[in-house]
Structure prediction request, 290 residues.
Amino acid sequence: MGRKTSGWLLVAFGFLGCLTAEAASPVWAIRGDHNTVYLAGSVHLLKATDSTLPSGFERAYSGSRTLVMELDLSKVDTTEAAGWMMEHGTLPEGTNLRKTIGDDRYRRVSTEATRLGLPMELADQYAPWVLGLQLMELQYAKLGFDSQSGVEEQLQHRAQSDGKPTTGLETLSEQLGLFETLSAEQQAKFLDLIVTEMHDVGSDTQAVITAWRAGDAAKLAALLGDEYKTFPLLYRALVSDRNKRWVPQIERLLKEKDNYFVVVGALHLVGDGGLLELMRRDGFKAEQLN
Prediction:
């Protein structure tokens, strides 16, 4: 598998590559009978010093009446989200993380949690998938990546300032609930992926962002194929199945009169089963913006 996994984990939640080597912008325009839907890929986490959005975003944002994201960030209640995590992301009474993942995995996880400042007495109550997300978030924060500099937060703040309507393709519980569908062993495997690639995440993520900005089709296609083989069930849950649920929503937008700007994570756009391919199969042509 090598060092690509940590990059893929970011992609699953946020970066985009392009389909052609000469691509200038990770934004596509899809024409309806009376409107245009702009479809773009995002990086959920960026560094404040490297947060300028690629070309195409300005045209798509300015030319659209409504901003559509995976989640409508304006409606995400942090208190409600924390409550959902407590209800769905903690282990049942009478068990703990060590019992769930075994002694060997527990020792490896403890080492990383301690390094990142997460007390194991707190981590012991988390389901493996929750702890994996926590460790990934802490590692990215340590490296200087944050969601406030990410694509969606930038666009959400601008939309709020401009009075532009926003909406989402799914709810927070729908998004996080994807991990609940994984078995205990699959959740442990997800945690393994996080811990194994933790120390390479900085260089891997920078390579991903470089590809996102430049449109390196060969690298992104290889990443997609390799990681699908590594953990196909997780890929299907995080990417393929969600794409199938989103396509009808996006195609309904193409029947409206106003323009929409739809922003989703990268792997949702590219490859077989990506949104662009699924929509082409339905007869829609995507034109990449410069």
